[in-house]
Amino acid sequence: MIQSVAAIVFGDGSKESSMRLYPLTKRRSEGAIPIAANYRLIDAVISNCINSNISKIYALTQFNSTSLNSHLSRAYSGAGLVGKQGFDVEVIAAYQSREDQGWFQGTADAVRRCLWVLEDDHNSALEFILLPGHHLYKMDYQKLLAIHRNSNADITLAVAPSPAYHFRHNNRRSSFGYVEVSSENEVIEFRETRESEKMNPTAEAEHSTNSKNCISRSSYRSMGIYVIKKDAMIKLLREYFPRANDLATEIIPGAIKIGMKVQSYIFDGYWEDMTDIEAFYKASMESTRNSTSGYNFYDIESTLYTLPKCLPPSLIMDAIITDSIIGGGCILNSCNIKGSVIGTRTRIGDRSVIEDSVLMGADIYQQTTYGDQSIREEGTGIGIPIGIGENSYIRKAIIDKNVRIGKNIRITNKDNVQEGNREALGYIISGGIVIVLRNAVIPDGSII
Fold it and tell me: Which family, according to the similarity comment (predicted)?
C-alpha cells in the first residue's frame, strides 16, 4: 500500500475560495495560512500523509506560492523528520510550456499538465489520493484506501455529514458539492447545491427514495478528497474530458455519468474546510479550548509536523494568560491575554489586553527603543515597532504578520460592522471580525 499510492496535494484552492479568505490570502496561498501559533494549514494534510505511511507526495502550487513552496521544501525534506526515512515531498509549481501557455486553470487542469511526472517510470503508484491543502482534519488515509480497494472502485470520494452549523450560515456551503449515496455507499449523483437543505435544515444525512429506481439514498457533503486509479485518472483527463478544468464540478460528475464506479467513504471526524474568514476564526478559537469539539493539536498518536524553528522560549513578565496558545519566541510584558492564539515572535506591551483574537506574530525581532525619541510622532505610525504597543485593547480580531500597532489603540469593531473594506487604512472587516493586514501600521490612539 505504501508503494502503490501517491498523494497529490493542492497548495491553493480556487480563486473563489482565495477571495473568501482575503486578506489572509493577499500575499500567501491558502495552505500557507498560519494556524495555532506554530503551524500552517497545509501541515495538517501533509501530516495525515506521513501518519498514513504515504511516503510520496506531490504538492501542486500556483497562486502566491513563494512562502508555501519555501515551507514545504524546508519542512519536509525527509532529513528533518525523525523515524520517517524515505519520505519525499516534491513541489511542482505552476509553469508554462510550448503546449500550455497559460497557468493552471483548475485542479483537473493542474493534474493533467503534471501527468508526465506522475507517469514517470520511477513512479510505481497505481492509485493517487488527491487532497486540498488548506483543510483542517485528521484522517487515516489507509482506511480510505481499504474502502477503495475492497469495492474495486475507479474513484472513491471522502464525504461528510452536513451539520446544522452550516445551515445557520447561508454563505457557508460545501466548496466541493453534494453527493447522493446509495445504501451500498456508491455515489449515484453529484450536485453543486443541496436540494433538500430548505426542507430539513437540521438533518445530518437525509434519506429519500428515487421514484424511478427505488434506491434508498443519503446526501453528504463532498470533502474534495478523492482516491483515483491511475489508469482511470489518465483516461478521464486525456480521453473523456480533455478540456475539463475542475475535478469537483466536471471530472467527478462526468465519471458518474459515463458509468465509472464511484464509491464513498463516510468520514465522521472533525473537518473544517476553511471556506471563509469565519471558518478560520472558529477553528482558531477552538484550538484554545480543552475540548474534543475541534482539531486536536496535542494528539500523541497522530503527530502534527511542521518546520522546526530555532527560537528562544517565550519571555512572560507579569502577564495574566488564560485559555490561550502561546507560540515560541514571544515577549509578553504586563499584559492580559484571554482565549487567544499568540503567534511566534509576538511582542505585547504593558497593560495591553488581548481577547478572543488571533495574533500571527512576526518573521523578525525588532528593537523597541530608540536613542532619539523624536523618531516616534504621535498619530503617524513613524517609529512604531512590530508588535502591540502599550495600553492597547484588541478583541475578536485577526492580526496578520509583522503588523505595527501603536500605543493606546482599541480594535473592537466599535460600530458592530459586519462587512467593511478599509484596506487603505490597514484593515478590513469580514463577518464582524476585524482583520489587520500583513505589514500594516496602526498609528497611536486609533479606534477601530
Answer: Belongs to the bacterial/plant glucose-1-phosphate adenylyltransferase family.
